[in-house]
Amino acid sequence: MIDRSVLVSEDEILGAMRLVNGAKGWLMEGAAGVALAAFLQEPNRYAGKSVAVIVCGGNVSPAVRQRL
Fold this sequence. Notes:
The protein has helices at residues 10-24, 30-41, 62-67. By secondary structure, the protein is mainly α. The chain has one domain.
């Protein structure tokens, strides 16, 4: 069951990937960046709540790696 879906742009996904790479040094693939990008769209929605965003996978093409 899906309660809600969120549309994120390629730029938002890349931004989420950059954020994690800069903060933690982790290289994560775009599929994982989608969840974080969606979360980052509405930070006030989650204020005061405990939130978990699943981040997995490190399959990044050389072209995307260069953009990071």
